[in-house]
Amino acid sequence: MSVTVLAKNGKLRAGDSVSSKNELYRAVMQDDGNFVVYKGDEVMWAAGTHGRGANRIVLHEYGNMTMYRADSRPCWSTRFPDDISNTCALLLTDEGKLVLEKDGQEVLIWSRTMSKDVLERGSELRRGDYLMAKNAEWKAVFQHDANFVIYGWKPVWASDTYGMDQTRLCMQEDCNLVMYNDEDKPRWHTNTAKGSCNTCVLSLTDEGKLVLEKDGQAIMA
Fold it and tell me: How far is CA 102 from CA 47, 62, 82, 87, in A?
């Protein structure tokens, strides 16, 4: 089954997909249990759930999309705030954005611009952006609620900054990772300022650990 819109309480089973209207992109619930966005044959994004026994995705009425195993245990979720919506739909735009629409408001699940492999000095994450591990099984998300959280299929670490006013997470020239609000006031940091450096890179390992490297040496893990 291929649809352009998955409506509230709809399901995707193995082999089912959501396609963009221009047919350039498709999001497939695969036989191996992974949910993958393709452009043609090129993998653009994956939920990282292959081999976990998932056999269906359900779009719940409260606006979360959840993947379940055959025994009905959840193994992945979009983890948006739970609130009942009159209308709720999953769609893939002609630009390849995977979007959840709740009562006419778009909530971005994935786009090509929001996922990064590494965060280098001078770069930043905005709300909704995330770092992805190379194996696609872990991601570190700067959430819309201002919390910075590492997920496998469940959260394993968080900065505990939920509900604060910061809007960006910056890798500074001094190798300090800092959250700022719109007035450029710092709200949280890793306390890793170590003076000048040639390179400074934040990445997420295939084991789900955040690693900050300065000139090739790990200073935070």
Answer: 21, 9, 11, 6
* Count, residues in the chain: 221
Tens of pLDDT, residue by residue over 19-58, are 999 999 999 999 999 999 999 998 887 777 888 899 999 9
- CATH architecture for segment(s) 115-220: Orthogonal Prism (2.90)
Look up the pTM and report it. 0.60
Question: Angle at Cα 153 formed by Cα 89 and Cα 181, nearest 5°?
Answer: 75
Class of CATH domain 2-110:
mainly beta
C-beta separation of 187 from 181 below 8 A = yes
pLDDT for 143-189, tens place per residue? 889 999 998 767 899 999 999 999 999 999 899 999 999 899 999 99
- What count of other Cβ atoms lies within 10 Å of the Cβ of residue 194? 16
| CA contacts within 13 A on the Cβ side of 78 | 24
Give ranges for CATH 2.90.10.10 in the chain: 2-110, 115-220
Strand 130-132 relative to strand 139-142, pairing: antiparallel
Helix %, strand %, coil % of the chain (to 5) = 0, 50, 50
Pairing verdict, β 17-19 and 2-3: parallel
